[in-house]
Design a protein that fits this description.
about 40% helix, 13 helices
Length: about 350
């Protein structure tokens, strides 16, 4: 026999299925549901808990309970998912887009690609437009300078209140309770440093991004590996750069050479950083890996085609995109719950690291 709270759950889901209740609609109050079904307040609350856990509704303090399940699939308009990345045509981003597209197309969903250029102002403009038009059914987003305070977090919260689900890919904002799909960046930094240690290195420098949450996590992993082996951490040989400095690394080559003096190896924030460090070393007449071993992260095309092919940690970019799209379509089309998922990176060895025997 069906339990009383299940009758309420079934009725609400039926109203959503037939379009009587659509995303953003307010459910009848607890008192109204008590009267309609002849049940206690405790029974109504149990039903609302079930509906909330399934992703069909959400409670808003002081306001009521609202439908969050996407109901636009019951109209003639196809489901549209926005993919908001910092860049779209370089580095690992084409692979992320390929993975997303491989899922959305068979599901009959439309992908709207937008680019922030890693600029907070452009991110804000795009988010405001999504809120104003409510023209998308979900957003897969890469964060902008996630290592810094961001004034746009309230806009992400507003989107979710409107019933437009958000999922972060490749990186995430720690101040938002929004799921993400990414590589385990702390583990990437740890494995990179551990590999250098296993190859005999003890004087290991590092270059990390200061305005990027991934940079902070990769630095933390690097520190984990050094402290695990009681290796002295030389603060002067850890270099923090922001996005602009990363672009212009080669123009500041003297500073990087000075900071890394005495190091036999260096963990780089990503393959782009490692690629540029190789060029800096070669221009200065140093050989990689004979004079300094260099390891990157992401295993991008830059790692393969670097003048010295780079040892790197695999960032499964296409799988990230595919997983993010599966989670988003599951949420929109089937009311499935989205939960964060992080992939463990794998070491890909090439020619940029050598074995040494330090005294």
């Amino acid at each position: 026999m069906q339990k009383k709270y299940e009758q309420i759950v079934g009725w609400v889901n039926e109203q959503i299925q037939n379009g009587t209740l659509i995303r953003g609609d307010r459910l009848p109050s607890e008192n109204e549901l008590m009267e309609r079904f002849g049940v206690s307040r405790q029974t109504v609350r149990r039903a609302l808990e079930e509906l909330t856990e399934s992703g069909s509704v959400e409670g808003r303090r002081g306001s009521g309970t609202y439908v969050t399940a996407n109901t636009r699939r019951y109209t003639d308009r196809e489901v549209r998912i926005a993919v908001m990345l910092t860049y779209v045509d370089t580095y690992i981003f084409p692979a992320i887009i390929k993975g997303i597209e491989s899922v959305l197309t068979p599901e009959g969903c439309t992908m709207q690609i937008v680019m922030t250029d890693n600029a907070v102002e452009k991110e804000r403009m795009l988010l405001k437009e999504f809120i104003r038009t409510q023209s998308v059914d979900g957003i897969i987003a890469e964060t902008v300078k996630s290592g810094l305070p961001n004034p746009n977090l309230n806009l992400y919260r507003e989107l979710e209140k409107l019933g437009i689900p958000v999922l972060f890919v490749n990186s995430f904002y720690t101040d938002l309770d929004i799921p993400h799909v990414s590589m385990d960046d702390r583990m990437a930094g740890y494995l990179a440093a551990r590999h250098l240690i296993e190859c005999g290195h003890r004087r290991i420098g590092g270059i990390f991004k200061a305005d990027d949450g991934q940079g902070h996590l990769r630095y933390a992993g690097y520190m984990d590996a050094l402290m695990e082996k009681d290796i002295k951490v030389r603060g002067g040989q850890v270099i923090w750069v922001d996005s602009e400095q990363l672009k212009n690394m080669e123009e500041e080559s003297a500073g990087f050479q000075k900071r890394l003096k005495g190091c036999t190896a260096c963990v780089c924030y990503n393959d782009e950083t490692a690629y540029k460090l190789v060029r800096i070393c070669q221009t200065a007449g140093k050989c990689v890996p004979e004079d300094i071993s260099i390891i990157g992260i992401d295993n991008s095309a830059l790692a393969q085609f670097c003048p010295v092919p780079l040892t790197s940690l695999e960032n499964p970019a296409e799988e990230l995109g595919r997983t993010a799209a599966e989670m988003m379509t599951g949420r929109i089309l089937r009311n499935e719950k989205m939960e964060s998922r992080e992939f463990e990176p794998e070491l890909v060895m090439r020619s940029s690291v050598r074995v040494v025997h330090e005294i």
